[in-house]
Amino acid sequence: MARAVRLKRGGGRGYLRGVSTAQTGAIAARCLIVDDDTKVRQSLARVIEVHGLGVIQVSSGVDALALLRENGEIPLCISDIHMPGISGIEFLREALSLYPDMAVIMLTGVSDVSTAVECLRIGALDYLNKPVVAEEVWARVDKALEKRDLVLKNRFYQSNLESRVRELDRRNKQSLINGVQTLVHALEAKDAYTSGHSARVARYAVKTAVQLGFTGDRLEQIRLGGELHDIGKIGTREAVLNKPGPLSPEEFEHIKGHTALGERILAPFLGESPVVLGIVRSHHERMDGHGFPDNLTGDAIPIEARIVSVVDAFDAMTTNRAYRPSRTPHDALEELQRCAGSHFDAAAVGAFSRAFSDVSLLPLSI
Ligand SMILES: [Fe+2]
After folding, report:
1. If you measure from the C-alpha of residue 245 to the centroid of ligand 1, how many angstroms do you get, rounded to a whole number?
2. DSSP letters of 257-274?
3. CA 268 to ligand 1 centroid distance, Å
4. C-beta neighbour count of 137 within 10 angstroms
5. Which of 163, 267, 319, 362 has the fewest Cβ atoms within 10 angstroms?
6. What is the pLDDT of residues 281-340, one digit of tens each?
7. 344 within 8 A of 336, measured Cβ to Cβ
């Protein structure tokens, strides 16, 4: 079969355009020429070398695949279609399955147009009609490498974008946590008796939840809910918060409003965290339905809120409040156990007592 590469000189410019070893994993920017016709192969190699690319020549698809497997990806490959052994199409399929980003240009005769189209469908980037001229080779080589470069850059951009989105998400979460801590500090500045209460409740709740099998994100939600459960007290009058004596019915109603108010304050920030909002709203519900604000009963109360209810009560009992002195940890635990099933979730009380088997070490100093 007569094959001719008609060389036209001039215009060669060296480049390794935009294809770095780091991006491709190839050992260097090179071109692999696969053709059983030695004259065609060598002529084409000279054209490519004049253009500034190092060339490796092989005479069959089998040799080309062996070379690729041994040495890794080569950025550009120009392959004949009709060769002894495996055909150019078979080589193309196999080569792209090894290295999907390799830029492959097929060498075709006039009668091979339909085969060339098939090659494009498989993944070749272009084809060159024989006999080829140097300028056309250079133009097709440039175009193929530019396409490959674009694909690699897009992929790099995509993966970089994903990591930037993850970083942004992490920063958003951190700024939410910072905002939460500011809110908690604002509350604790207003109500000196609850100083450290939110942090203790968060820690007690997490350890209790671990006993109930909570892990990962669910623990993080519990922790956040514990930190924020009383945030609605920002809207409670200080005279009521710090009143030393018993509350009047009106004052009691006023302070009860901190649950729903807390949910309303946080909803714009935590709309995607219904668990945390559920803790804030429902941490004063009781198993027997005599709690507030919704008089929920039993399992209708979110489990996370039932946990926070237990540890909130424990911490309230074991720290001094405006209206009464603290009780001992043993007394407080006995009170929780006495009210398990009616006021508190019995499983949550059990988990709390397992989490803090030596209750005398409490309250934690935060
Ligand atoms: Fe509360």
Report:
1. 18
2. THHHHHHHHHHHHHTT-H
3. 20
4. 23
5. 163
6. 999 999 999 999 999 999 999 999 999 999 999 999 998 776 677 889 999 999 999 999
7. yes
